[in-house]
Amino acid sequence: MNLEASLVRAVSFVEEAARTGVQLVTFRVTWLHGYPAWLDYCPDAVL
């Protein structure tokens, strides 16, 4: 849950991927902004 540290890691992952020829890099939906808190109140919203 540290946005700055997560951004640094994301950039390093993308740079490493580019160096090795990777053309597509994906991250989980909660990688930078964290767990969507509204899911605790509306758990059926994603169904």
What does this structure look like?
The structure is a single chain. By secondary structure, this protein is mainly α. It has one domain (3-46). 36% of the residues lie in helices and 0% in strands. The protein has one helix at 3-19. The longest helix is centred in the N-terminal third of the chain and has 17 residues, at 3-19. It is elongated, with a radius of gyration of 14 Å. The protein starts with a helix and ends in a 28-residue tail after the last helix. The relative contact order is 0.14.
* Total of helices: 1
How much helix, percentage-wise, in residues? Answer: 25-40%
Unreliable sequence segments: none
Terminal residue distance: 26 Å
Mean of residue pLDDT values: 84
Strand content: under 5%
SSE order, as H and E?
H
Number of domains: 1
Major sheet size, sense and barrel closure = none
Judged by helices, strands and strand pairing, the structural class is: mainly alpha
**What is the CA-based Rg, rounded?**
14 Å
How many beta strands in the DSSP annotation?
Answer: 0
Which geometry do the CA atoms define?
elongated
